[in-house]
Design a protein that fits this description.
single chain, 406 residues, alpha/beta, Nucleotidyltransferase, domain 5, 2 domains, eight-stranded mixed sheet
């Protein structure tokens, strides 16, 4: 089955085409600055690369540009649209309505639209992309793969906030979690490496990048995760604060004179590594500055590792042990220093890092724990697009083999 994966932002469209039978990506591309005078198209396949200006007035025009690339007589990878057997869409928020990926019809579209208040920055462009793609690519089923769905197995005591229960009943205020496709992909791959069935795997998956989250996975299911109602909660991130005392917000407004309307920008875009260091939200310049003696840069690095370490300890308690700690994401895959600082001091919990192995691993799949470590420590590069393609293939095949009777 050939599966096209589409990920739409407010002014961008990313796509990848997979041949699932061969387990191979055939092509990938990005169309950005959609709606502007000159949009940009970047496309790559085994036999061609393209970086060109296009006129994508809207997402539907962008979808047509994507199709033109994929079917181009010279640089294309398919002869016609009929070769695309399913289309998978990344959708950030599925709320409590979707505990699994779902084939898209008008009713599913309507629910995604209803969930916009829970993800006002993400669900609208996701929905625009779905509608544009369904209008152009009419011959294949479309599947929504939700970032939140993997975490819908959390028990109520893990997802419920200790606020008056009416806010959950009326407004669905609860923990949802994000990065679900990444957590599921790396947890499943870790189980494969260990030679265990996924439904017998337990571990802590650490998606560390500019956005960061962890998940406690027990028997192949998410039972807790660090992000909450929104992606702001949990770990310290590049520009997001992560966990903090909610009363700080009252203090900032009442005593520091911060306008209420600035709080969202302050906590989501001005905090985290950037806010503490005053230098950057990127680990590399922070490490350079720390080596030079910049105390705030050093503090930001230490805080990041310390908070991650605390959550690993908490999730090991939730799981009552684990098979593995799995690092992924830009920082998790490429920063041996942070992996070392996070795991240092966890030896009594059964986590012992091999310093040499850890130092050698950059964006490659590897086990970096020492031979005597009771819990394996792994680096597993994430592949959210492939996970979306797998989910799309699963749902499309199930729909094909079990058609709904009228």
């Amino acid at each position: 089955m050939k599966v096209l994966v589409v990920n739409c932002g407010s002014s961008s469209l990313k796509f990848q085409l997979f041949d699932m039978a061969r387990g191979k990506r055939l092509a990938k591309g990005l169309i950005e600055r959609i709606g502007e005078e000159a949009s940009r198209l970047v496309y790559e396949s085994d036999g061609a690369k393209l970086d060109a200006r296009v006129k994508a007035a809207d997402h539907e025009e962008a979808v047509k540009d994507m199709v033109a690339c994929l079917t181009h007589p010279e640089r294309g990878v398919i002869a016609s649209l009929e070769e695309i057997e399913a289309v998978g869409h990344r959708v950030v928020h599925g709320g409590e309505s979707f505990t699994d990926s779902a084939e898209i019809d008008d009713a599913v579209e309507a629910v995604i639209e209803e969930l916009i208040p829970l993800a006002p920055l993400h669900n609208p462009p996701n929905l625009v992309g779905i509608r544009a793609a369904r209008h152009v690519l009419t011959g294949a089923p479309h599947v929504a793969v939700f970032d939140t769905a993997f975490h819908e197995t959390m028990p109520p005591h893990a997802f419920t906030y200790a606020v008056p229960y009416e806010f959950y009943e009326k407004y669905h205020v609860r923990r949802y979690g994000f990065h679900g496709t990444s957590h599921r992909f790396v947890a499943r791959r870790a189980a494969e490496i260990l030679g265990k069935p996924f439904d017998e795997f337990s571990g802590v998956t650490c998606h560390l990048g500019n956005g960061c989250s962890m998940a406690a996975v027990k028997n192949g299911k998410s039972v807790d995760t660090t992000m909450g109602l929104t992606p702001l909660e949990g770990l310290m991130m590049g520009t997001r604060s992560g966990d903090l005392d909610p009363a700080i917000l009252f203090f900032l407004v009442n005593r520091a004179g911060v306008p209420f309307e600035r709080l969202d920008d302050l906590l989501n875009r001005k905090s985290g590594l950037l806010g503490v260091s005053g230098v950057s939200n990127d680990m590399r310049p922070l490490l350079d500055e720390a080596v030079k003696g910049n105390r705030r840069a050093r503090l930001a690095l230490d805080m990041f590792a310390y908070r991650a370490k605390k959550y690993i300890g908490a999730y090991l308690a939730v799981l009552n042990g684990a098979d593995a700690i799995v690092f992924t994401g830009g920082i998790g895959e490429r920063d041996p220093d942070q992996r070392n600082w996070i795991c240092s001091g966890l030896e009594t919990l059964g986590i012992v890092l091999d310093a040499k192995k850890n130092a050698e691993v950059l964006a490659a799949e590897a086990t970096i724990s020492a031979p005597g470590s009771r819990i394996e420590v792994m680096v597993v590069p994430t592949n959210e697009e492939l996970e979306i393609a797998r989910e799309t293939e699963r749902i499309a095949k199930a729909a094909r083999d079990n058609p709904v009777k009228e």
